[in-house]
Amino acid sequence: MIKTLIVDDEILARDLLKLLISKNNMPLEVVGEAENGREAIELIFDLKPEVVFLDIEMPGSDGIDVMDYIKNHYIEPITFIVITAFSYFEYAQSSLRLGAKDILLKPIEANSLKESIARVIGYKFTDNPLLNDILQYININYRNDIQLNQCAKDFHISVNQINRLFNKYFHMTFIKYLNKFRIDKAIELMYNEELPIKEIATQVGFNNLNYFYKTFKIITGNTPKNYRQ
């Protein structure tokens, strides 16, 4: 689960966000709430959340003030999702320059929230908490050697059960999902023309270059070189 902080001066807005997170089995653990910028900064240093839903318009220190302070004084990785009313949208856009990953308009709807979370965490989550934990594990560790048997042991589940979950939600096995995830990351790295293909393969978890080429072509229909061109 991803440690999450909610910052909004309206208690009803905070309650709605918590309800949507819980009702839709989103992979977020709400570890704290703040109703103003000063509280938000204190809780960020105290709780070290990974994701912060941040209202842009609050009395006293607003969302922009919070992001500006955190950018200059906080070293831990953190993701801001800015929340704003439509009337403050242009003002909220300045938060992107301070590192916000997404903007949500009030009133927040479930689908918009799901899409936003999927964008910022880098993978699509499901309504199955166990599967979400496995997806998060892949997202964090895809650069390393991931073995299906070890994953099954770590999550106290059989190999067959893992594959049934992936087939049910993604219509593919665990290994095929892992390979596709890695290839998608490789494609992102290909925008950096200076990185050689071999280094890209290593960075996304492929220790065998031939296997990387074979997997890349199966998934994209092209060789890495042709795809980059």
TrEMBL record:
<keyword id="KW-0805">Transcription regulation</keyword>
<protein>
    <submittedName>
        <fullName>Response regulator</fullName>
    </submittedName>
</protein>
<dbReference type="Pfam" id="PF12833">
    <property type="entry name" value="HTH_18"/>
</dbReference>
<keyword id="KW-0804">Transcription</keyword>
<feature type="domain" description="Response regulatory">
    <location>
        <begin position="3"/>
        <end position="121"/>
    </location>
</feature>
<dbReference type="InterPro" id="IPR020449">
    <property type="entry name" value="Tscrpt_reg_AraC-type_HTH"/>
</dbReference>
<dbReference type="InterPro" id="IPR001789">
    <property type="entry name" value="Sig_transdc_resp-reg_receiver"/>
</dbReference>
<keyword id="KW-0238">DNA-binding</keyword>
<dbReference type="InterPro" id="IPR009057">
    <property type="entry name" value="Homeodomain-like_sf"/>
</dbReference>
<feature type="domain" description="HTH araC/xylS-type">
    <location>
        <begin position="132"/>
        <end position="229"/>
    </location>
</feature>
<keyword id="KW-0597">Phosphoprotein</keyword>
<feature type="modified residue" description="4-aspartylphosphate">
    <location>
        <position position="55"/>
    </location>
</feature>
<dbReference type="InterPro" id="IPR018060">
    <property type="entry name" value="HTH_AraC"/>
</dbReference>
<dbReference type="Pfam" id="PF00072">
    <property type="entry name" value="Response_reg"/>
</dbReference>
<dbReference type="InterPro" id="IPR011006">
    <property type="entry name" value="CheY-like_superfamily"/>
</dbReference>
